[in-house]
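Appendix C: a fully annotated inverse folding record. The material below is reproduced so that readers can follow the format used throughout the book. The structure is listed first as tokens, followed by the designed sequence.
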């Protein structure tokens, strides 16, 4: 299977989010939120977007402090962190303003309870006025809603949706090495069993690709696949 990012609907929605944040009028706040369940493709999408636009990507950790967070952002900017913290905040703001760059903050669930880090992000946003996008799991929107000053600066959001059949057809046609058709009954089955989760869908599709190559067939239906499990702990 090829290694590439396929522009499924969630990717296109995320691109619109970034486009809207970048072209917003000056009276509209510029925080964005991308959220959804594990394995739906959030990190892949954001890393792909940040490679296309002027932006900085950081991932948060459970152990983060304001200092570790700011140091990581500065490292991504190829800046040497110069404490104290107030100075490091200034460094981040200056670089974002000079480079007109957005900031993507992945695994934000880890910091949403940390008032000092969240306030630091708000300070950065208020001074740099460049888009800042938080990425996290399903519960993050509700958890941020308790932080009014953060919550009311969010003007764009995308909730990642399960892959639909169109998305899955696109995955097959763009990722398989050879032209193989996966019949709709098999795709629907995979979609139902996986709940539309990208990570599981790709595992199943790779098995089908191998099967089609090994058996030299260019179309695979549910009947052809048979009863071999496509997922761990699958009901038979
Ligand atoms: N648009 C895409 N095209 C191709 N592969 C993708 C795409 N989106 C995700 N994937 C693949 O699906 C898997 C899961 O994606 P990813 O890690 O981005 O999900 P996530 O939502 O960030 O999950 P988590 O919440 O667990 O961090 C990865 O292996 C990734 O390579
Ligand atoms: Mg992720």
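Designed amino acids, in order:
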């Amino acid at each position: 299977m090829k290694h590439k990012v396929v522009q499924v609907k969630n990717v296109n929605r995320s691109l619109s989010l970034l486009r809207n944040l970048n072209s917003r009028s000056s009276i509209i706040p510029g925080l964005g939120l991308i959220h959804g369940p594990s394995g739906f493709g959030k990190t892949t999408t954001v890393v792909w977007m940040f490679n296309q636009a002027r932006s900085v990507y950081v991932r948060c950790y459970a152990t983060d402090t304001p200092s570790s967070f700011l140091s990581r952002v500065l490292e991504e900017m190829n800046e040497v962190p110069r404490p104290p913290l107030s100075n490091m905040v200034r460094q981040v703001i200056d670089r974002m303003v000079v480079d007109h760059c957005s900031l993507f903050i992945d695994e934000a669930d880890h910091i949403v309870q940390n008032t000092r880090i969240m306030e630091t992000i708000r300070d950065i946003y208020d001074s740099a006025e460049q888009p800042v996008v938080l990425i996290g799991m399903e519960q993050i929107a509700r958890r941020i809603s308790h932080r009014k000053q953060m919550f009311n600066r969010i003007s764009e959001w995308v909730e990642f949706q399960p892959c639909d059949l169109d998305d899955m057809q696109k995955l097959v046609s763009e990722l398989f090495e050879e032209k193989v058709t996966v019949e709709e009954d098999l795709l629907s089955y995979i979609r139902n069993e996986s709940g539309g989760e990208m990570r599981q869908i790709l595992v199943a599709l790779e098995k089908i690709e191998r099967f089609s190559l090994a058996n030299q067939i260019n179309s695979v239906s549910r009947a052809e696949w048979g009863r071999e499990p496509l997922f761990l702990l699958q009901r038979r």
